[in-house]
Amino acid sequence: MTDNDSEGLKIDAQKAATRVGLTSNEIIINGGSPLKGRIEVRGAKNLAPKAMVAALLGTSASILRNVPNVSDIRVVAGLLALHGVQVTRGAAEGEWRLDPSNVEQAHHADIDAHAGSSRIPILLCGPLLHRLGEAFIPDLGGCRIGDRPIDFHLEALRKFGAVVEKLPSGISLTAPNGLHGANIELPYPSVGATEQVLLTSVLAQGQTELRNAAIEPEIIDLICILQKMGAIITVEPNRVIFIEGVEELRGYDHRALFDRNEAASWASAALATKGDVFVGGAQQEEMMTFLNVFRKVGGDFEVHDDGIRFWHPGGPLKPVTIETDVHPGFMTDWQQPLVVALTQAEGVSTIHETVYENRFGFTDALNKMGANIEVYKDGMHDDARRVMRREFEQAAIISGPTPLTGAEIEVPDLRGGFSYLIAGLTAEGQTKVTNLGIISRGYENFIEKLRLLGADFVYEG
Ligand code: EPU
What we know:
The protein is an alpha+beta fold. The protein has helices spanning 3-18, 48-54, 71-82, 108-115, 125-132, 151-159, 191-201, 217-229, 260-272, 288-297, 332-342, 363-368, 414-426, 446-452, and strands at residues 27-30, 36-40, 62-65, 86-89, 96-99, 134-138, 163-167, 170-174, 183-185, 207-211, 232-236, 240-244, 253-255, 276-280, 300-304, 307-311, 321-323, 347-353, 372-376, 394-400, 408-410, 430-434, 457-458. Helices cover 31% and strands 23% of the residues.
């Protein structure tokens, strides 16, 4: 060992002595200081993986730009690679090239091992049936926010002519007579089922009419991608989409729509911490409903060409009543981060969660930190409702303002997890957040972004 080496070891030992022994899945946040600065959001986690699946339908390579570095993307890239798609990173950051020239069947065990907790594999069904005549989908994961069944997907695929066989390890599909256009009415405007229909109908023989479709901006962006590939898709009023099947699609070149869920999360963090955050890449149109609520709660914002600045203008925050809904309603993914800000509002806020049946589990930890949130597991009666009541909905009543104090809390799911970061940043004292890894499913470089915004924390990952 040279002198230099031993000096290096001494320095490492000193560093180790100052470490507090966190795993890479944990963070300690010293709360109480406002988030201030600028961060960038990239392409939507709820669009980019589906755009990558669409590449399977082309006869030539596709290029997707503005792809976020989140684990859902890595799962889909791996799944596509298992099916013979050549997946390469472009020279520019966030650029992916997907060449489907040699699509092939993958082993069930490999698909199963690779799919992890993602729900995206279900969307490979239509494209794989077109390309290979068969598909296998393992048991699906995703966040623990309800049953999240796939019955709408399977029903739609059957209408296109797919034969579905349930196996102990997953679902096997074949299309002995090819896939043909269908008339489909979804029982609920499901985002995933609408994507399923789009990805299957574009190459199906004949016309497809989809009623009660989801029309989220990410779906419209997927339609734009498919149109670039050569598809003929008409979006009609009243949630009707017509698709005229074509014989062949080519690759696309597309910049993914920004992630409005991430943008809304940082906006809520700015509000809860009395901060001022410029979210680069955020756009107004896709966030209109959120912006209205943000203003009603007492937040302020400014729309710029290259992003939106969100801040707490001082004075008390005001309580609100929100019903989550499909687009253009208030997204279910926006409620968890906002709930933390609402714990600081003066008065009683109500949130009716109508999209998922179990999306208030995260509030237990907030109560442990001093919040006053009561969850009604069967929902609540409210005469002033706009969103149709669903069988399984729940409601949360948030009474504020309640100071939050640090605690040890474990991330339950993606959006709940981000709300815990906000709670830690808002609270007095130290908060230890464990099971942090889930957050990287949907928030690119969030540790780095916290640093950029001046958050005070210890992370040793
Ligand atoms: N549903 C069914 N049967 C189905 C499909 C859906 O009953 O076959 C129900 C679901 O159980 C749920 C409702 O319909 O109650 C809506 O589900 P949807 O299909 O719209 O959701 P998804 O496509 O599985 C996507 C996002 C979610 C987001 C929802 C709603 C992705 C990968 N996920 O899920 O994002 O909350 O749309 O906008 O795009 C997140 O980002 O944290 C997240 C959960």
